[in-house]
Predict the 3D structure of the following.
Amino acid sequence: MESLSAATAESFRLLFSGDTALWVIIFTSFSVSVRAILIAAPFAFLVAFLMAHLRYPGRRAMIAGFSALQSIPAVVVGLTVYLVFSRSGPLGDLQLLFTHSSMIIGQILLAFPLLVALSHAAFQAADRRVWETSVTLGAKPAHAFFTLLHEIRFGLIAAFIAGFGRIIAEVGCSMMVGGNILGYTRNIPTAIALETTKGEFSQAIALGMVLLAMALLLNGLLAFFQGRGVMTS
Amino acid sequence: MKEVIVYNALHKSLHGRLLLEIESLAIYEQRCVALSGRNGAGKSTLMRIIAGLESPDSVTVTYEGISMPWKRACQKMRTHVIYLHQQPYLFDRSVTDNIAYGLRRQGLSIKDISRKVSEALDWAGIAHLQLRNARELSGGERQRVAFARARILSPRVLLLDEPTANMDSESREQAHRMIKQLKEDGVSILLSTHEFHTIAHLCDAHFSLQSGSLHPQTIDRENNDRKIIPLG
């Protein structure tokens, strides 16, 4: 096992020398997670809006359900997606297991409840006058909806960031449905887990630093947008 | 006097309690009508129904002499009736963008929008505020932006929910002037208020909402310093 100081020095070299293997892993991570969050967010915001504005039987149960699903373990989602897309699973014929697509599906399922729960809170806290003012000024429902999105944008951005933070760092789901294939489905968390078990810490530390920087950046942005998300009259 | 909108047999219940039971309510062209009543009497609900923002249990609507179902009446109201909340909501954007909001929904050209917004800013005396974020304005300034934003759409009917509540005397006088100008522009106004002063200065008729129905009141233009004290 290499010494910690040597591993750290090597990790800096890897990061700043443009090591291809390392940057492919970083690119895979962001490529998968960004696509997942961009697909999940619009649907989640729409579901949250409908939950906040419509009255229908089972609404409270739905809200409670999404709230509970926020903390679903990533490996459970990974297991579910694995079973669905495995050769003997109901969607096995699609041959999506161990591809970016299955990783994206898994991350969408992970992010969706969190996005719905957080954006629902933002929609619920929105001033009723936003919608009414838009409508009374002649806006059609779609326009009024986009006006409402604009008015609560900081809350939605905070939800978006929290959702992205959840999936960029998860290891269980990506490991199970992505297979940790070098140069293809290996992302930052799965690479860190693998390199650590191999006792090769330099790449793990380099990737850890990227993840840490990302986490700090996301949390900084989250604090900024949550602070700005307070509605005024 | 020409009727703009007439609501007949308007009923509205809330949580099993009959809130509104109005036989007939007509809004006439270029008239300002005051609506008073204790807190919780249903004034805001009535105005929101007239604006098409809330549905009644049952009603018959006649718009410019044509009887129409509620759904179609709602579409008419959303085009021709504007409702201003007690504290008007201004969007988190510039004063100019707030005033242009309704015009942009109508698909006007940028040049026309710019010209109309410029006129509206001058009308409300807020040209110096045009680039400010509307959220940063004082209560009186916000009210002026809201009036300008409504006027620019040339509504047939303007519904004002306690437009001068909690205002200092200067802001109140300014609001009165703008409401008078709107009336002179041909807009029919229905305003809810607790203030005799406002009724005496602006209104042609006064109704009190009691037990869900409208009762005509006389307007005392001589002795109007009193305030109607809300009973609720």
Remarks:
- The helical segments of chain B are 43-50, 70-80, 95-105, 110-124, 139-151, 169-184, 196-202.
- Chain B touches chain A at residues 48, 51-53, 78-79, 81-83, 85, 87-89, 91-93, 101-102, 105-106, 135, 149-150, 153 (CB under 8 Å).
- The first strand of chain B starts at residue 3 and ends at 14.
- DSSP finds seven helices and ten strands in chain B.
